[in-house]
């Protein structure tokens, strides 16, 4: 993370704030602001009542998301897919900066860190950018994922993860054996680890190896002090603990990816056994809330890549896919394809609505439409589709728990729109102004 901060400074994409700010809403307000203005990351150096500075909005801009992938917009999907195909095993080292300070049992206190209260009706402070590491109790295979963590007291965190998340699979297996699940939470890690932890890496594949694939060199790990787990040696802060079996407590509400508050209900808790950190840690904060936030950007590129691969297996005519952040990087999916035979677009709509990511709205467009540009996709809907014959509605699908519009029984309907030009039908010429490609970016000229 420190190397990434240096890169942002070089590129003039980090602002240091000296003004004293509060953990309650102050940190969140800065991140909200840079998220809404495609602004720089912020380093808040003076947090009231805390000595640890807060870095926020690292992924509040897609620009920085692409830098973390070390990719251009066109190559970002491939960068992730290449890492999936070329995982690098991590390397265990004997010590690292994340264990310069070690606090065990009673001396561990997570509340000494500037854990922000982000949104107005959040139940309390949250750790949002901590990578939760655990092992499958049966196979021992490691997993790393990002799940919201409610700071409940000095040594207790609430953990909220959807049932399909991999940590939930581990928790379920541990509970079947009536044993606690060991976990570690690494905060302020190499961006490659954050990207891998936020991605839909297949179950049973170690996200550390994917991070190594992204870095094209092994990730360095150290052994935890009180649990049988490993964490990136360069982490800023590490929390070690156990999730006791069959213990549930109220969690949330917390401002979520949908732009609405989400209640976790009765959820598992982490009992902290140790906290280790650098001598001078930087606390990494990240916003989840009304799109677009760190949450949407961090997931976006890898989610697109995963669905692209899934759909391409059956439909090689797919050109591009995109989950716009407006849909919480989930509910809306745009697909462009070179359709070749009658019915192919309807077939891909059915396939996409049945994917594990379960979008609620799928729009299929021709390959000349840029799926990253919602204006162009809406244009295609406006002028290429006839609703009566170009839409598909399926009822009774599993709903997204955080979507407040789902039915009382948890189910949801879904809509597919075929916004491709009808096969074999001649459309008029599209309007075009010659020579525009020769005009420089005047916007940048005036700002320079
Ligand atoms: C900032 C951020 C916060 C997230 N918070 C949660 C969360 O609270 N609960 C959840 O189920 N998923 C959350 N996610 C999504 C998961 O990290 C993502 O689905 C990931 O694939 C999970 O890893 P896994 O597949 O190994 O379980 C979050 C993602 C990001 C980027
Ligand atoms: Mn996983």
Which features does this protein show?
single chain; 448 residues; alpha+beta; Pnp Oxidase, Chain A; UbiD C-terminal domain-like; 9-stranded antiparallel β-sheet; 5-stranded mixed β-sheet; 12 helices; 25 strands; 26% helix; globular; binds flavin mononucleotide; binds manganese (II) ion
CATH architecture of the domain at 74-280: Roll
Largest sheet: 9 strands, antiparallel
CATH homologous superfamily label of the domain at 74-280: Electron Transport, Fmn-binding Protein, Chain A
Mean pLDDT: 97
Structural class comes to alpha+beta
> Proportion of β residues?
25-35%
CATH topology of the domain at 74-280: the name is Pnp Oxidase, Chain A
Please give the CATH class of the domain at 74-280: Mainly Beta
Radius of gyration: 23 Å
Approximate helicity band: 25-40%
N-end to C-end Cα span: 29 Å
- Strand tally is 25
What's the total helix number?
12
Query: What gross morphology would you assign?
Result: globular
Give unreliable regions as ranges.
none
Q: Compounds present?
A: flavin mononucleotide, manganese (II) ion
């Amino acid at each position: 993370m420190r190397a990434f901060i240096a890169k942002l400074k070089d590129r003039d994409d980090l602002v240091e704030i000296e003004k004293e700010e509060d953990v309650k809403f102050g940190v969140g307000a800065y991140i909200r602001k840079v998220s809404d203005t495609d602004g720089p990351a912020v380093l808040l150096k003076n947090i009231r009542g805390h000595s640890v500075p807060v870095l926020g909005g690292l992924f509040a801009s897609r620009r920085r998301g692409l830098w973390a992938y070390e990719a251009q917009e066109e190559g970002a999907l491939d960068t992730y897919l290449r890492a999936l195909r070329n995982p690098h095993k991590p390397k265990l080292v004997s010590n690292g900066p994340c264990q310069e300070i070690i606090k065990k049992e009673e001396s561990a206190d997570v509340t000494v860190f500037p854990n922000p209260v982000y949104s107005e009706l959040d139940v309390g402070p949250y750790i949002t950018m901590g990578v939760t590491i655990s092992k499958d109790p049966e196979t021992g295979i490691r997993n790393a994922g990002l799940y919201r963590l409610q700071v409940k007291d000095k040594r207790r965190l609430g953990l909220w993860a959807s049932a399909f998340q991999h940590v939930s699979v581990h928790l379920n297996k541990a509970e079947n054996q009536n044993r606690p699940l060991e976990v570690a939470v690494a905060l302020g890690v190499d961006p490659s680890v954050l990207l891998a932890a936020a991605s839909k890496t297949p179950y049973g594949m170690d996200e550390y190896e994917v991070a190594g694939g992204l870095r094209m060199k092994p990730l360095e790990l150290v052994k935890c002090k009180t649990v049988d787990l490993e964490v990136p040696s360069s982490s800023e802060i590490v929390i070690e603990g156990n999730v006791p079996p069959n213990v549930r407590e109220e969690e949330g509400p917390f401002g979520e990816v949908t732009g609405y508050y989400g209640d976790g209900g009765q959820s598992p808790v982490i009992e902290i056994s140790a906290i280790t950190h650098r001598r001078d840690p930087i606390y990494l904060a990240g916003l989840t809330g009304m799109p677009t936030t760190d949450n949407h950007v961090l997931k976006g590129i890898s989610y697109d890549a995963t669905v692209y691969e899934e759909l391409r297996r059956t439909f090689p005519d797919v050109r591009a896919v995109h989950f716009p952040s407006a849909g919480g990087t989930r509910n809306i999916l745009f697909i462009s394809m070179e359709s070749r035979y009658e019915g192919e677009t309807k077939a891909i709509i059915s396939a996409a609505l049945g994917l594990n990511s379960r979008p609620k709205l799928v729009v299929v467009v021709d390959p000349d439409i840029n799926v990253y540009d919602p204006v162009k996709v809406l244009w295609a809907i406006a002028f290429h589709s006839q609703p009566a014959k170009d839409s598909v509605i399926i009822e009774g699908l599993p709903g997204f728990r955080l979507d407040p519009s789902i039915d009382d029984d948890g189910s949801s309907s879904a809509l597919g729109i075929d916004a491709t030009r009808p096969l074999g039908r001649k459309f008029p010429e599209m309007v075009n102004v010659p020579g525009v490609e020769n005009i420089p970016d005047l916007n940048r000229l005036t700002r320079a």
